[in-house]
Amino acid sequence: MYLLYNIFWFFFSILFIPLFVLYSLITGKKRNGLWEHLGIFRVYISSKKVVWLHALSVGEVAAATPVLKELKKILPDTSIVVSTTTEAGNMMAKKNLSFVDAVICSPLDFLPIVRSTLKKIKPSILIITETDLWPNLLRCASKMGVRLILFHGRISERSFKKYLKISFFTRSMLDHFNLLCMQSQMGADQVIRLGIRKDKIRVLGDTKFDVLEEIDKDSMSCLRQDLLLSSEQKVMIAGSTH
């Protein structure tokens, strides 16, 4: 399956990469991280121990932030590299994660680009957030002896049905992980059904709640006054309603 995947990437990249570069240069989109997506960048890492965390976008960066702060406290001499797929996620990471050693755009999952990126970063641990799974990245990192952790893992019902149809390939990807930290027991049950051993799985909850701060009574009172709300009125806030 990996052979077919890489054959696809080879022919796809012949057409896609030149168009991707041209599109970026013309529209300005992805221009800031264009060369990083192609594995062309420099990182200055101060220690031998490197943790590389990959986050898809803004939500994944938010979920990883409290964990990265704790990691830096516990292991101050460890270098941390953060990669993101989207521009919004990249901007947020650069704004909120000033304590990490580097923030880059994630490499395309084309074998030469993946190998080049891994050789430059030389991670001891690669942490993937949620389910932004890239077959070549996982396989190459595993072959290089990098310990792989799935953090804040979750699988939507729709994705799970697709994964079941190609469970032989999905299992081979997930099996590269040394540890799978899932948000819920449902997520843990899903990866077990996909063939992953129970001893690799932990249920750790949703770390996005760890960045929430409680509001004191005076601030709450001022906020209610600004919103013309009485102390008896209840408020519900909904996010990501799509």
Could you name the key traits of this structure?
alpha/beta; 10 helices; 242 residues; single chain; 7-stranded parallel sheet; 7 strands; 47% helix
Task: Describe the structure in brief.
The mean pLDDT is 90. Helix content is 47%, strand content 14%. With 242 residues, it is an alpha/beta fold.
Shape: globular
Fraction in helix: 40-55%
Widest sheet, order of strands:
3-2-1-4-5-6-7
Contiguous runs where pLDDT drops below 50 for at least 5 residues: none
Percentage of β-strand residues: 5-15%
Annotation, overall tally of beta strands: 7
- What is the first-to-last residue Cα distance? 34 Å
C-alpha Rg, in Å?
20 Å
What oligomeric arrangement do these chains adopt? single chain
Query: In this structure, how is the largest beta sheet organized?
Result: 7 strands, parallel
Number of helices: 10
Rounded average pLDDT:
90
Question: What do these coordinates show?
Answer:
The protein has a 7-stranded parallel beta sheet with strand order 3-2-1-4-5-6-7, with helices on both faces. It contains 10 helices and 7 strands. The model has no long low-confidence stretch (mean pLDDT 90). By secondary structure, it is of the alpha/beta class. 47% of the residues lie in helices and 14% in strands. α6 (135-143) links the parallel β4 and β5 (147-153). α3 (58-74) packs parallel to α4 (87-96) and α7 crosses α8.
